Amino acid sequence: MSAASVERPHEDRPLIAEANRLMDRNPGHRVEIIGGKIVVAPPPDGPHAVALTDLMLPFCTAGLHGDESRVVQGIGLWLPTGTEDYAIPDLSLVDADFQDHYVENNCYEPACFRLVLEVTSNNWKHDLRDKVKAYASAKLPVYVIVDRKHQRLHVLTDPAGDDYENHRPYSPDEIVTLPASIGADVTLHVGRVLKAGQPRTS
Q1: CB 79: neighbour CB atoms within 10 A?
Q2: Is 172 in contact with 197 (CB distance < 8 Å)?
Q3: Separation in Å, CA 152 to CA 122, 146, 192
Q4: Are the C-beta atoms of residues 79 and 87 closer than 8 Å to each other?
Q5: Distance between alpha carbon 122 and the CA centroid of its chain, in Å?
Q6: Residue 55 and residue 195: Cα distance in Å, rounded?
Q7: pTM of the entire predicted model
Q8: pLDDT (tens digit, 9 = 90+) per residue, 86-114?
Q9: pLDDT (tens digit, 9 = 90+) per residue, 179-188?
Q10: Eight-class DSSP state of 82
Q11: How far apart are CA 147 and CA 141, in angstroms?
Q12: Alpha helices of 76-143 — where are they, by DSSP H?
């Protein structure tokens, strides 16, 4: 699996220091550095968490949480786009030896990531635009976006530069089979995933 080279840590890390201060002051928020800018996302709502749990199940059922790979939530991904850039995908499929790829600040090298997945919140443009560039630049093979705003599920594959060559949106009535390159056959029922992520209306 090809992956972008990672710039190793430097002693002076002003952005990371500020990001860590923000995390300490705002428990539950997700703080990332993308393109040299600190991005703060609010804590996820209940339906976001339900959708993530529902999404984990087909990966685990397919045997992807075992000896060869692991399904994990909220671990950091060190990005090649800046000396302090990192992202924290909602869900990741990583090689089982991912801990051997530790960089710093609870982040790991892109080389051990097979797939990253985001469930959008009110900062949905970030997942659909900025993270596409960041994840493609890191040569992450598969990026899945559960777009709750527009009721679509996006599958992006074949990173090239700062974009993906293949970007396919799926509607709620479709069934998606993810690329076999992740290590097993995983099928997602788009409508079920989107329904799980929908907040109740009063």
Answers
A1: 26
A2: no
A3: 15, 6, 11
A4: yes
A5: 16
A6: 12
A7: 0.91
A8: 999 999 999 999 999 999 999 999 999 99
A9: 999 999 999 9
A10: S
A11: 19
A12: 124-125, 131-137
